[in-house]
Amino acid sequence: MDIIIVYLDFSKAFDTVPHSLLLEKLMCYGLDKRSVRDLDDGIKCTLMKFANDTKLSREVDTLEGRATLWEDLDRLEEWANKNLMKFNKDKCKVLHLGKHNPGVQHRLGFIWLGNSSVERDLGVLVDSKLNMSEQCAAAAKKANRMLGCINKGIASRDKEVIIPLYSVLVRPYLEYCVQFWSPLYKKRCVQAGEGPEEGHQGDQRTGKPAI
Questions:
Q1: Rounded to whole angstroms, how far apart are CA atoms 172 and 22?
Q2: What top-level branch of life does the organism fall under (predicted)?
Q3: Residue range 133-181, pLDDT digits in tens
């Protein structure tokens, strides 16, 4: 299965929202509504939103699937123009997933979007192979940097001091969204600073998350 994910970035989304237009929409939806969700109108692909992060995804094994994705990108561009918003198209990237993905280029408006081999998705680095090596390396780097700060700044090596510091300052880097990116290979477990669980002999996989 070949899938395309288009990561969309609104330019200064929280600074450029036209308040008068937003108030009109709130009145149409009722003043008790806390958000306006008309960005989804007419969209056939999967559209996911969190704050100002937006991504559009679709299976592209067929010409029909690719055509649907192009149509939805046009709808999003039309929505942005209608609502006086702008996409930062230099930051909008396309991630191609799938062994046989042809890597077709896609455009937003009149601008062709750049392809990316890895993207940060809600704080987690996702690459085109979904092997999570980039995320493991990034998490290990941040955790080791914090361990270095603790080592330099804290003279005591008592468990009563070190363990709480480790739990509060280091583990969050290793546990953030770990259900999604948890290392499956021994070398990734070691890279993330955790001893791998005993797995099947001759198999690189541990069978359990490192955390």
A1: 37
A2: Eukaryota
A3: 888 889 989 999 999 999 999 988 899 999 999 999 999 998 888 878 8
Single-letter amino acid, residue 184 = L
Count the Cβ atoms, other than its own, within 10 Å of residue 21: 14
Write out the DSSP string of 50-67. ETTEEEEEEE-SSHHHHH
Would you call 90 exposed, middle or buried from its count of C-beta atoms within 10 A (0-12, 13-18, 19+)? Answer: exposed
End-to-end CA distance of the chain: 30
- β-partners of residue 124 are 121
126-150 burial, b for 16+ CB within 10 Å, e for fewer?
Answer: bbbeeebbbbbebbbeebeebbeee
Q: Which of 119, 151, 150, 149 lies closest to 134 in space, CA to CA?
A: 119
Residue 31 scores a pLDDT above 90:
no
Domains of the chain (ranges; CATH) run 3-116 (3.30.70), 119-211 (no CATH)
Nearest to 24 by CA among 14, 12, 38: 38
